[in-house]
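Still learning. Any example?
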Amino acid sequence: MNIKPLAGLLLALAAPASFAAMPADGWRFDFTGKAAAGHTAVQAGTAYDSTRGFGYEVDNGGNNGANNGADTSTATATAAATFFSADVPEGNVAVTVTLGPGTHTIKSEVRRLMLENVVVPAGQTITRTFVVNTRTPAIAAANGMKAGVVNLKAPRETVQEAWNWDRRLTLEIHGGVDKVEIKPVQLPTIFLLGDSTVSDQPGEPYASWGQMLTRFFKPGVAVANHAQSGETFRDSLARRRIDKIVSQLRPGDVVLLQFGHNDQKQIKAGNGGPFTTYKAELRQHVDMVREAGGLPVVVSSMERRRFDAAGKPESTLADYAAAASQSAQELGVPYIDLNAASKVLYGALGVEGSKPAFALPAPDKLDNTHHSNYGAYLLAKAVVSGIRDAKLPVASQVVDGFAFDPARPDPFDKFAVPASPRYTNERPLGDEANR
């Protein structure tokens, strides 16, 4: 696997870019074989080139490749997809796609679900718009933050998840597109900060609710997922993840904060606990977000898959859920009780019915902490319900017709989001003692 030295790669990711290849009014691409007026024709096989500023992504031996250099020895067949990238400035971009006949699903960056199974009848076209957040590791001197860089994890973020940090938008396209238009926009943003159950997981069979949340919002709001596997509030401070978010905050932006799974390891190490350091570090995050004009929202961690002899879900994170609830009340910030919702959800699915909601990286090796696409999708719905119940301003941008009851979850046999081509049997970082 040909991987750049870490220092050089971080400099390349963080360095300013001219974006000279991007027209002042945005990109307009035509994939039909001939360019419509005002569009750039994209021919099949046009590989991404930085001097051109757009093109299809190809497997280059590990860095942003089809499987990101991961072990695929237990991979199963997944749906075909193409990856198309275009250089864009850091921030939010509105993406308008024109779709021809067929069924279409589009994901962005590292497997964020944007459009789900859009069916276009024969002889027709449909246009859809969604918003994607892009970023680099560079931290601007803004909102009281010192300039610097996010301390990325190598090789996870510099190789497997590099599409989240480069200076371009990447689309994972299932079903094809006729046209794509991309232009920068300024919109309210929902920032996510949390652990592996929130972060963009790079390959099947793992997924997180943060990757699915984008599916449930209209193009009047963006979702920026800064969560990372294996981390805690303490890691967020040390690696400057919260600093990166704060440097970008504008009034009206929301920051969802969900940690707990990995914080439990601090108890074993004798350097933390739910009602001491966890609450103190949570408060520090809330204060930083507030000072920058954002709205902090505390989210309790969902439970692991664990049932008692009677088939009732057991609590494994009760103290951290209680600490999160107490903190939200004491600090006067909105609270989403994902812990309680997950227990209702798992109970409704049952001992056997809950298994498809969790990742199965190898036969007989069900991961009872990390979720499958199906489980992540359901938990994202629970978060959206929590956003509505908390009456957050961004709730006005929830897609029309949205409804969810964790006691009556969508059946697994009706779930049809296509899998991504990239697969890994490498378990997400953290929470090793609670598989």
Observations:
- The chain has one domain: 6-434.
